Each structure stands twice: as C-alpha cells, then as structure tokens.
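hi! just following up on the protien thing from before. the input was this:
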Amino acid sequence: MDKILCWICKKPATRARALGNVFASYNDIMSSQKKPNRFQRCYCDECYEKHMNEIAQQNEIWLKLKRVRMFELAMDKMERQDIDFAKYEEAIKTVEQFNLDNPDKFDSAAEIIAAIILIHNHIKIKTQYKIEGYQVDFLLPNDKVVLEIDGVTHKLKTAKDAIRDDVIKHHLGQGWRVVRIPADTTGLNTGTSSWFVG
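and the predicted 3d structure came back as:
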C-alpha cells in the first residue's frame, strides 16, 4: 500500500485537516488531530502549520472585508430612504467603528441600521447578547426590551421563535418584552421611511 504523502512537500504525511474547520480559530485548527487518509488533503506537521496559518490570515482579511461590505450595504439602504444623513453622522461613525472592532456583533445590514437608529435616539444597547443559550440581536436594558430584527427565514420558524421568546422573557423577569421587527417591512429593505423616528 502506498504511503500517504504531504499535499505540499510530498514528504510522508502525519495528519489530515479536520473537516469543517475553515473558519475555526488558529488554535482550534492546530489542536485538531486527524490521522492521514486517502479521502482528503494530508500534510506533514510543518506544512500543516504553515497552511493553517495562511488560512487564519485569509480568514482575518475575509472577515474584515465582510464587515466593511455589510456596513456599506447598510449605508446604501439608509441612503435610499431620503433621510437627513447629517443628523445620523455621529451614530453612523460610532457604529462603523464598533463594527470594525467587533467582528461578531452584527449578523446583517439591517442590524447595523437598527444599531444606528437606537444610538441616534440615545438608547443603550447590548448587541448579540447571550440569554439562556440563545443569542439575541439587541438587549435594551433601560427599556427592558429584547429587540430582534427578523430576516426572511423568521417566517419559517415562528413557532420555534415563540418558544424561544418565552424562555428569554422568563429568564429576564417581569416587565421584559421581546419585540420583533421584520426587516423586509420596516424600511430596512423596502425603501420606505417607517423605521426612522427622527
């Protein structure tokens, strides 16, 4: 039986890459051990480390570009609504910097727009806040509100989300509400101005 060789240098391979780890952290990738096999690319230890380091660097570039593009999409959606953009400048710049510094805090352009509007209206927010194993888009602690910006997939899981909302409200306590705003009917996607409150 032929030896399994390193995909890069053709020395004997010592490990295969763990599948599904393209966006894992560098440390997680390096700690994953998988024996060489004939069904995927395999590497010697030196080439594995070099290759995974390159992937980690590519991921960092990709995540930054993704954040920048998502922010620009949010700006485009806002500009289509004919609002007085200068009024929102301070909030826009605050959210733009927060988005660059925190790659995991917004999942969509609609959430970026929501953050801009909330900050413009001096509403304290926590983004991607974890509650009882769930992650909510926004927690508004002073208003006792959990705010969810629902994309098109929400329509397919309304029953599941209702249970989720009950668990969240029960955990947070009396007086808390879960408010859901469908992104496709609030001006976030349609070009109407109903989302903006002045």
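Confidence is low (pLDDT under 50) at residues 185-198.
Residues 139 and 146 are 5 Å apart (CA to CA).
cheers
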